[in-house]
């Protein structure tokens, strides 16, 4: 075997392709038949650990055809790991044992950096305690969990992983505002982290999801997926919790009769009633199919006290499904109720998937920001011959967002051998102006211009200037931004079409589809108004989940399902982790087609 290894090493041909990432130069090597990681490491003069560290997502998967990155030895100045410390002031009556237990270290660890302690501890002495050794698990003490930052980690990824708001992380780690160097020790409040299903218990998670299912099996009405068959004697009970403000809006409506110009319905009421009407149409469809559905409507008034009162209603525990409420604070409150009573619950509009943690019966319909970014970078990574240019205005939030996009693209690039070659550039518009953007563009490539900003003035200026550059020099461009750009009065829609403007959206209405035309006709007939996005939304959500009830019964969440399409949505619900609720992972990339009509780009 030794002789074979040497032979392979001699046959490995070093790549002549390089890439510069984050100040480090790498070879790009495509593994050929017969090449082993050991042979490749010998050929490039690096260790197997060096290769594994730079290609973590591919460890154990380095098969022929896989592209990996290998550090160019002698040219890089990659810093090694620097031991991190916390400092502890010894209190009266504290012992070495209690301090070691508090920080999860050994006496030898403390003696190594505090030799004087071998003679005993003294109150007031400041101890230098090592934490975050990469060869050991992250340590914990009574108040904090200590997380050692991995390569490419961001505030957003930490927030998603530990379900802690970014502001809360920065509160305890102010230096992270300027970035997260690999190896940095990050303090996370233990009382928060422990309640959020940390990865420390990952090896037990499979068992925990089985426990969730086993608990459901003890219910009298539980029927396994394969054994369930709908009987028309069964009536499904659905609770709809919406801030309808029925009494207030009724009072306003009466006053409008005498003074029509003075008052309007409470904010968002028209959209909420439209959503409600969509739900009614979905129920009518299933009733026409011979399926029995009873809807219980509760007016939450977007009020904690009202929601608490609703949760005391005895019939609520007998529901098969809960839709709503709409706003995050009330969602969290009702989610606890749904988990306690094992009732599937749908959050139609919340986008922060931390509410899913420890709520295994909760469905989040709108994808989180992290999911949308990941799917957007997947779309970018499939664009051939791409020159990706991110343009921002230098704000902290936009720099952070740029880093997230870059990190996601890097992971896609090195983990998928089918990803085409791409170039990534970052431009701070305050450092050189629009000319810097033009310098970054390439006539021979598809220039993907991403502007991760919500500043209308900044976006308008960049887009209008960019339109002139593209028209003058005939660049091929895919401009990626936000749906809100369509409403900016100082951006010519023709500019957006000429630059192949794309954006990600949770929904897409194709009015040419027969089923969409039928829905619009029915909505007009029953409610005497045109359906908007909220009417479609209420219908799609209710129709999808009622169909699950009919097909699998109340415990449909334990039945395997793939991606499905509604009138305007795609449904692909996946658990965030084995003990959490479900997040919808499907969205659309939309662009302007001919005659300025929207069409799918992905």
Shape: globular
Number of strands: 23
Note poorly predicted spans. 1-10, 76-82, 133-137, 191-208
Percent range for β-strand residues: 15-25%
Structure class: alpha/beta
Distance between the termini: 48 Å
Rg, Cα atoms, Å: 29 Å
Question: What would the average pLDDT be, to the nearest integer?
Answer: 79
Please describe the biggest sheet, giving its number of strands, its sense, and whether it closes into a barrel.
7 strands, mixed
How do the strands of the widest beta sheet line up side by side?
A: 9-8-10-11-12-21-20
Number of helices: 20
Summarize the amount of helix as a percent range: 25-40%
Topology:
Blueprint (H helix, E strand, L loop, with lengths): L1 H10 L6 E4 L2 E7 L6 H8 L3 H7 L12 E5 L12 E6 L6 H8 L3 H7 L12 E6 L12 E5 L6 H8 L3 H7 L12 E5 H4 L11 H13 L17 E8 L3 H13 L10 H20 L3 E8 L4 H7 L10 E3 L4 H14 L2 E4 L14 E3 L4 H13 L4 E7 L3 H20 L6 E7 L5 H7 L5 E5 L5 H18 L2 E6 L11 H6 L3 E4 L8 H14 L5 H20 L11 E2 L4 E2 L1 E3 L6 E3 L3 E5 L5 E3 L2
Parallel strand pairs: 8-9, 8-10, 10-11, 11-12, 12-21, 13-14, 13-15, 15-16, 16-17
Antiparallel strand pairs: 1-2, 2-3, 4-5, 6-7, 17-22, 18-19, 20-21, 22-23
Could you give a quick summary of the protein structure above?
The protein contains 20 helices and 23 strands. With 602 residues, it is α/β, with parallel strands linked by helices. The strands form six sheets. Strands 9-8-10-11-12-21-20 form a seven-stranded mixed β-sheet, with helices on both faces. It has a seven-stranded mixed β-sheet with strand order 14-13-15-16-17-22-23, sandwiched between helices.
């Amino acid at each position: 075997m030794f002789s074979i290894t040497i032979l392979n090493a001699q046959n490995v041909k070093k790549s002549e392709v390089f890439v510069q990432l984050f100040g480090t130069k790498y070879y790009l090597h495509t593994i050929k038949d017969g090449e082993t990681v050991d042979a490749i490491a010998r050929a490039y003069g690096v260790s197997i650990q060096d290769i594994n560290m730079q290609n973590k997502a591919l460890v154990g998967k380095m098969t022929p055809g896989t592209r990996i990155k290998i550090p160019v030895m002698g040219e890089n100045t990659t810093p090694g790991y620097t031991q991190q410390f916390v400092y502890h002031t010894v209190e009266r009556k504290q012992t070495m044992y209690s301090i070691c237990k508090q920080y999860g270290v050994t006496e030898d660890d403390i003696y190594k950096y505090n030799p004087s302690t071998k003679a005993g501890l003294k109150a007031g002495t400041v101890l230098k305690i090592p934490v975050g050794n990469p060869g050991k698990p992250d340590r914990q003490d009574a108040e904090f969990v200590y997380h050692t930052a991995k390569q490419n980690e961001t505030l957003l990824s930490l927030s998603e992983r530990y379900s802690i708001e970014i502001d809360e992380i920065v509160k305890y780690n102010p230096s992270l505002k300027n970035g997260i160097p690999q190896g940095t020790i990050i303090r996370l409040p233990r009382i928060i982290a422990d309640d959020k299903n940390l990865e420390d218990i990952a090896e037990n998670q499979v068992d925990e999801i089985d426990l969730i299912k086993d608990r459901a099996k003890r219910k009298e009405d539980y029927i396994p997926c394969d054994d369930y068959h709908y009987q028309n004697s069964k009536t499904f009970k659905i609770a709809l919790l919406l801030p309808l403000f029925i009494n207030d809006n009724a009072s306003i409506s009466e006053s409008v009769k005498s003074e029509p110009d003075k008052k309007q319905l409470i904010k968002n009421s028209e959209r909420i009633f439209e959503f409600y009407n969509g739900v009614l149409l979905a129920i009518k469809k299933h009733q026409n199919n011979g399926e029995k559905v009873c809807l219980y409507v509760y007016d939450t008034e977007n009020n904690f006290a009202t929601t608490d009162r609703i949760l005391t209603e005895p019939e609520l525990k007998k529901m098969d499904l809960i839709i709503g409420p709409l706003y995050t604070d009330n969602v969290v409150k009702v989610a606890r109720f749904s988990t306690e009573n094992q009732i599937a619950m749908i959050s139609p509009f919340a986008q922060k998937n931390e509410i899913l943690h420890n709520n295994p019966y909760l469905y989040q319909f709108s994808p989180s920001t992290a999911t949308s970014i990941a799917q957007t970078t997947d779309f970018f990574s499939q664009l051939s011959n791409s020159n990706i240019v991110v343009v921002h205005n230098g704000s902290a939030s936009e720099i952070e967002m740029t880093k997230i996009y870059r990190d996601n693209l890097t992971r896609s690039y090195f983990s998928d051998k089918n990803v085409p070659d791409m170039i990534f550039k970052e431009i701070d518009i305050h450092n050189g102006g629009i000319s810097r953007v033009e310098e970054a563009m390439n006539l021979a490539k598809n220039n993907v211009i991403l502007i991760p900003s919500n500043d209308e003035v900044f976006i308008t200026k960049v887009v209008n200037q960019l339109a002139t550059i593209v028209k003058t020099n005939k660049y091929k461009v895919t401009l990626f931004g936000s749906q809100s750009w369509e409403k900016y009065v100082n951006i010519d829609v023709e500019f957006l079409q000429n630059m192949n403007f794309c954006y990600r959206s949770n929904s897409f209405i194709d009015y040419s589809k027969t089923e969409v035309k039928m829905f619009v006709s029915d909505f007009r007939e029953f409610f005497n108004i045109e359906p908007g996005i909220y009417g479609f939304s209420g219908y799609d959500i209710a129709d999808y989940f009622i169909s699950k009830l009919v097909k699998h019964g109340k415990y449909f969440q334990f039945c395997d399902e793939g991606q499905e399409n509604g009138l305007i949505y795609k449904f692909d619900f996946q658990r965030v982790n084995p003990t959490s609720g479900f997040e919808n992972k499907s969205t659309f990339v939309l662009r302007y087609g001919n005659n300025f009509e929207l069409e799918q780009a992905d």
